[in-house]
Amino acid sequence: MSKTIMTVDDSASIRQMVSLTLKEAGYAVIEARDGKDAMARLSGAVDMILTDLNMPGMGGIELIRAVRATPQYKFTPIVMLTTESQASAKEEGKAAGATGWIIKPFKPDQLLAVARKLLR
């Protein structure tokens, strides 16, 4: 059975790149435009979430807090996929409940290595 990964980013081109990379590796992908859209689409089996940090509406940190407050997704891996590389932003992400961090632009094999590691 394939694992389902949600990708949350306000950039359509980033969502497409992430989706294509993951689908080629056999993952099912749900795309969301921002945190609100992600929360609306979060139903059933989502095995991992990849989220941008800075998005209009509901950003990545708020999304992580909202997901972590939902019992069903309390332990779902959440990886920040962002251009932010400051330690303070990482700390805030970790404090909110982020599992990991990938800096954009990402390499497809790097993304897949993280997905495989977290979805074993």
Automatic annotation (TrEMBL):
Domain Response regulatory: 4-119
Keywords for this protein: Phosphoprotein
SMART domains: REC (SM00448)
Full protein name: Two-component system, chemotaxis family, response regulator CheY
Stored InterPro entries: Bact_response_regulator, CheY-like_superfamily, Sig_transdc_resp-reg_receiver
A Gene Ontology biological process term: phosphorelay signal transduction system
CDD domains attached to this UniProt entry: REC_CheY4-like (cd17562)
Residues carrying 4-aspartylphosphate: D52
